TrEMBL record:
Species this protein is from: Pyrobaculum aerophilum (strain ATCC 51768 / DSM 7523 / JCM 9630 / CIP 104966 / NBRC 100827 / IM2)
Pfam families (UniProt xref): Phosphorylase
GO molecular function: glycogen phosphorylase activity
Family: Belongs to the glycogen phosphorylase family.
GO term, biological process aspect, one: carbohydrate metabolic process
Protein's recorded name: Glycosyl transferase
Tree of life domain: Archaea
Length: 484
């Protein structure tokens, strides 16, 4: 049995994710079910989901997204101890073949219910700490009661917030999976919380969760080869434990069925044009005779959504732009960019914006697209998977040299590359770098458009289709994780 703990999880029956981590963990769940791997993934159930946005007086205002238990099965209730009080939780599950998704719903007391109401949103540091204490204690309790530790082959902890479980249960094959090189991927808490809850008088102040996790785990995993150097630069004393397993996508979940088994660029063109028209119609987009360019993902500064906005202003060809994504409500830059995306869609007839990217909407956007944009500030993206999902559908990307892109994309062969390949975190407000890289980005988009006009595009698209299905399949990831 594989046991994985994650702060978020994107499966089809709940609204329990914010971005790429949740979608990746959902892909692992469905892949485990398909491949017959005994797999249990445990997360919190967030009654208010992540975040939705409504418009008030022309402004975007965050609101509860909402969630549902309707398609989950309650299998038990348990009592945990946290903050010196009794915390009651219920375990709801969703099963697919050999895979089980466990959602921990907090029932009482009120402070614990409040702390776990929303994903990645807390009012105080104490709320944030106890949210993940509850997840850790519930996960260990669930495994003890419903799985049995003797059956657990790997105990995988997704992101640093989950490493609190190692205070409660050590495992010889416990592994911390680090999904971001950025500072927010290494959250901290005041040491007093650990003294109050666990009785430990830790030597560091504040306490860095990734440091604790790497110290207690048998191994640290990063999600691209490039990320090894970044992680070792931050935690050099744990570098001997850190190895890469590059992310992948669950191809049956993301690939359009009509694209299966294409044997040539001509076959791909015929199938993709049909798929594209169906997806555009489903999205309500008119793009007859036009190239569709898309930028869709979580909106935050390091992903450089402003590149897409500037491109809309600068490209003078017959194109349609699809924009998608939402920001964390505390990310002022991200919320501002949402407003700019919204204004562009309202004022330009060739721009469409989809703020809420559930899996079904994201699939339709990918299927409707001709050129995918992947624009992170190099050094800040751990892996990225949107370009993988595009590539397995024969949609090539114009991509910055970051994350897993550099492992697969060959410029002009199965996509187009721009910018420097940086292996350190430079400031995101580096205007000179942005200006220089935007100029190359725009030039590469023009190259892609020229290739589309000449017909050479379909050779590039077919190369992406072939190489991405080989490099980014879940079978490869499962073997490297030791699941198969």
């Amino acid at each position: 049995m594989i046991v994985s703990i994650t702060p978020e999880l994107a499966i089809d029956v709940v609204k329990n994710f914010a971005g790429g981590l949740g979608v990746l963990e959902g892909d692992k769940f469905y892949a485990a079910a398909r491949l017959g791997v005994p797999y249990t993934v445990i997360t919190l159930f967030y009654p208010d989901g992540y975040v939705s946005y409504r418009e008030e007086n022309g402004e975007l205002v965050p609101a509860a997204e909402g969630n549902t238990l309707d398609n989950l099965t309650k299998i038990g209730t348990s009592e945990l101890a946290a903050r010196g009080e009794r915390v009651v939780v219920s375990y709801y599950v969703y099963r697919a073949g050999t895979a089980t998704a466990v959602f921990v719903k907090v029932e009482s007391p009120e402070w614990a219910v409040k702390a776990t109401r929303r994903l990645y949103q807390e009012d105080t540091e104490a709320e944030r700490f106890y949210k993940y204490v509850i997840l850790a204690k519930a996960a260990v309790d669930y495994v003890e009661k419903f799985v049995g530790w003797e059956k657990v082959k790997f105990f995988d902890l997704q992101e640093a917030y989950t490493v609190l479980a190692l205070f409660l249960k050590r495992h010889e094959n416990a592994r911390v999976v680090i999904h971001t090189p950025a500072p927010w991927g290494h959250p901290t808490f005041h040491k007093r919380f650990f003294k109050d809850e666990f009785g430990f008088d830790l030597a560091m102040e504040p306490v860095v969760l990734t440091e604790l996790g790497l110290a207690m785990a048998s191994r640290g995993i990063v999600v691209s080869k490039k990320m090894v150097k970044l992680a070792c630069n931050t935690f050099p004393h744990h570098c001997h434990k850190i190895t890469p397993v590059t992310n992948a996508v669950e191809i049956p979940r993301w690939a359009h069925p009509k694209l299966e088994g294409v044997k040539s660029a001509d076959d791909l063109k015929k199938a993709r044009l049909q798929v594209r028209e169906e997806a555009l119609a489903a999205l309500g987009i008119e793009a007859r005779g036009k190239v569709v360019i898309s930028w869709a993902r979580r909106i935050t500064r390091y992903k450089r959504p402003h590149f897409a906005l500037q491109l809309i202003e600068d490209v003078n060809r017959d194109t349609v732009f699809i924009l998608g994504g939402r920001a964390h409500p505390a990310d002022h830059y991200g919320v501002e960019m949402m407003g700019k995306f919204k204004n562009a869609a309202e004022n330009m007839e060739n721009v469409y914006y989809f703020p809420h990217l559930d899996v079904e909407t994201m699939k339709k956007i990918i299927w409707a697209t001709d050129i995918w944009l992947f624009t992170p500030f190099s050094g800040w993206e751990a892996s990225g998977t949107s370009f993988m999902k595009a590539g397995i559908n024969g949609v090539p990307s114009v991509a910055s040299r970051d994350g897993a892109v550099v492992e697969a994309v060959v410029d002009g062969q199965n996509g187009w590359l721009f910018g420097e390949d940086r292996d350190r975190l430079l400031p995101l407000d580096s205007a000179e770098i942005d200006e220089r890289e935007y100029r190359e980005f725009r030039r590469k988009v023009e190259e892609a458009l020229d290739a589309y006009a000449s017909g050479r595009y379909w050779d590039v698209a077919f190369n992406a289709y072939l190489t991405f299905r080989e490099k980014f399949a879940m079978e490869r990831l499962f073997k490297e994780y030791g699941y198969l």
